[in-house]
Amino acid sequence: MALIFIRTTVIFIALLILIRLMGKSQIGEMQPFEFVITLLIAELACIPMADTSIPILYGIIAIVTIFILHQIVQLLNMWFKPVKTVICGKPSVVINKNGIDEFQLKKNNLDVSDLIESMRSAGYFNLDDVYYGLFEANGSFSALEKPEKASYSLSLTLIDGGKPNAQNLERCGFDKERLSSFLKEQNARLKDVVVMTVNGEGRVYFQKRGEKYKILNVEVNGQW
After folding, report:
1. Please, what is the Cα angle at 4 between 34 and 27, to 5 degrees?
2. Could you give the strand order of the β-sheet that contains 193-199, starting from the edge strand earlier in sequence?
3. Is the pTM of this model over 0.85?
4. Per-residue pLDDT reduced to its tens digit, 78-125
5. Contacts of 106 by beta carbon, 8 Å cutoff, 6+ apart
6. Cβ atoms within 10 A of the Cβ of 207, count?
7. What average pLDDT score do residues 5-25 get?
8. Nearest of 115, 114, 152, 145 to residue 129 by alpha carbon
9. Which positions ≥6 away from 131 have C-beta within 8 Å?
């Protein structure tokens, strides 16, 4: 028991020192390679702590090796910009002057609902609250916001990537016939709609694939 306590204490101190040496980014917003390194260090630290048959020196050497590799990657990132792009990735502009960029979303394995969720987390509750929206290399969302918010009413997603949201459609008073009529007016098929949202004031954000988004107005069932 005492041996395990001592081994755990030694590993803990070694990890604390190495994490501090890795810099603040290691405990803040991590780049992909930093996340991998963190997982590896956690796994390597557990083995010598739990298995007393493994010399504790082996665990420390493995952790120090990961630290050295981390420092090498950091130096490469600073000296060779193409290497940084390959290892860490680069920001993706997912909202531009035309609306949502589906290609950039799919490139990052995201869909419209993921984008809307990230925007809400950043304090934007309407797709046209920003001029430009970006997913940074570390996965965080950044935006160039408009001086005034488009609306102070929460938007509901009615169509996401050509797929209707039946619950939200019913809540807004859009039955199948009304939705079909609306799409016909916009000369759009359901599968061609990138996104359609509506807020409690009836303000619609509508974007057809390959076209700039539109702001329209419809009647809805009350406000929310």
Report:
1. 20
2. 163-164, 155-160, 193-199, 203-208, 214-217
3. no
4. 787 776 667 667 889 999 999 999 999 988 888 999 999 999 989 898
5. none
6. 23
7. 68
8. 145
9. 97, 143, 144, 145, 146
